[in-house]
Amino acid sequence: MSNTNAMKRIHIFDTTLRDGEQSPGASLEPEQKIIIARQLAKLGVDVIEPGFPVSSPGEFAAVQQISRELQQTEIAGFARAVRGDIDAAVRATADAARRRLHLFISSSDIHLDFQLRKTRDQVVQIAREMVAYGKQHVEEIEFSPMDSTRTGMEFVIELVEAVIAEGATIINLPDTLGYALPEEYEALFRTVRTQVRGGERVRYSAHCHNDLGLAVANSLAAIRGGATQIEVTVNGIGERAGNCSLEELVMAIETRKEALQMETGIQMPEIYNTSRVVSRTMHFPISFNKPIVGRNAFQHESGIHQDGLLKNRNTYEIMDPEAMGIPRSMIILGKHSGRHAIKHRMAQYGIQVDGEQMEEVYNRFKQLADEQKIVTDDQLLRMVGEATETQPDPYVLVDLQVLSGTQRARISSVTIREQNGTERTYSGMGTGPLEAVIHCIQQAIPVAAEFEDLELHSLSTGEDAHGEAVVTIVHNCERFRGTAIHKDIILAAAQAYVAACNQLVMSSGTRPGTSSNGTDTDSQIG
């Protein structure tokens, strides 16, 4: 038997739109939910839990439209063990090609005593009745005893036996508070599977929260204990410290699949794009050091690491970021970078200098890196220009002025110097100061690129704080990223946009003053 045939298929149940949306401040409009759901289907998740239909008319409508539109993906209708919840979930998912009803009720004594105010016998009876009621409408029933890891094995077994007898087909044992240790969670699944009457007839699912940072480890432990479905969220968002991160779990399985003998159906090239869509739509920034999709996950500043990576990527990377749709940008120029990394970055722009000029660039670089830690590409090009008395970048932002006010449109003027020394000034308007500036620069640098993304980060605190701007533009499905650092964040964003445009121009070989087909663009600029 080949390794591929021996692999255990792990089903990915995505609850970004339900549990993930319960993160404070992460509320979504119905239209936004639909956009994310489409991307989740493109990513290849097995099940989407689009929301809590009974909670609001908008939530119901979003679940209903997602059920109608995404006919290739199974849809889970979420409900408490309450008839009204079940009715709403059943109606909302009625048009799904494949659907399930996901029922839950608290099971731990602390929840029963202080939240439900019911006895264990009452909970078992409610669970029985509601699973039986749901079974009249939906064949696939997933049941979750909430807070099962703090419930006690005896009652978990009793409750699970009761719902299996009434027709539950999937048993989810949630670590609702992120309390379990991996060995405890694995043992919970093994015990329930082997000791529950009828336990061999159902599938098992894990739902882990990350309060102790163990959500991914616990999910892998659950798989060892017999779970074949893991419930996750994109970027690990969710209540408190979040849920098991989809991208972390999937890449742990993918990277160590030979050791784990597991696989998923996730389309890896869509991982990064899905992460970005969720982050932007929910206005939830991704931590720099977030595994897989964080900004620093595949970037290196250490000179030793950079030298190894330039010789062989596998020296300091265990995954290929480009396989996940992550733009290749592994070398970060900073105070720990050496000459090799600086030469490599210059070569990417087609720049070569002699030994004396290189030393001058290197000394300038180290002085600036000591002051601000990171050196951006446009700053490096400026150093090269000073050392060689040339202008290596096609466009330079010479001057910027912005007029803002509460009762009027923002007005901006920008002066750009081209590589031949010509300087031109452009004016523009916008609803915000940055929009006004971008309109000016787009006149000055007429490249057919989409302004895709802007990130702003504070690099320090206090009155002299510096802001870092990262701008991404897209041209012919290729991304170009520019960065800049300045106390004025509007100026930093403008410089970053110009840097991104310079990358595009230099990569395409288009000269300032001409379009991509070589025609003069002065008439377009005006």
From TrEMBL:
Catalytic EC class: transferase
Pathway(s) the chain acts in: Amino-acid biosynthesis; L-leucine biosynthesis; L-leucine from 3-methyl-2-oxobutanoate: step 1/4
EC id: 2.3.3.13
Any single GO BP term: L-leucine biosynthetic process
Molecular function (Gene Ontology), one example: 2-isopropylmalate synthase activity
Pfam families: HCS_D2 (PF22617), HMGL-like (PF00682), LeuA_dimer (PF08502)
Superkingdom per UniProt: Bacteria
Transferase listed as a keyword: yes
Family according to the record: Belongs to the alpha-IPM synthase/homocitrate synthase family. LeuA type 1 subfamily.
PANTHER family xref list: 2-ISOPROPYLMALATE SYNTHASE 1, CHLOROPLASTIC-RELATED, HOMOCITRATE SYNTHASE-RELATED
Name of this protein: 2-isopropylmalate synthase
Source organism per UniProt: Paenibacillus abyssi
Protein's gene: leuA
